[in-house]
Hints:
Radius of gyration: 21 Å
Distance between the termini: 57 Å
Structural class: alpha+beta
Helix content: 40-55%
Shape: elongated
Strand content: 25-35%
Amino acid sequence: MSKAKSILRSLLEIVKAIFESSRKSSRPRTWHQHVVPYKDGWAVRREGNKRITSKHRKQVTAIRKAKSIARKRKADVIIHREDGTIRDRISFD
């Protein structure tokens, strides 16, 4: 085997090892539901998602929807205030 092939093979092994270790260290996704301010109302968003699950005019209806999802998935509901800070957390473990 030539020296160039040997170096290339070693480099490939290193890249493969780095890629696999980075995938293993990432946390598994959760089903926690966040109730967040959204445009002129409120939205339910799964933790880690950029897209919303549903949007609502009132916070109470968004909380009801988030609870329904969280109950099925044995997750938490994290309720935010209008300024984005966390107001409450309800656990359905």
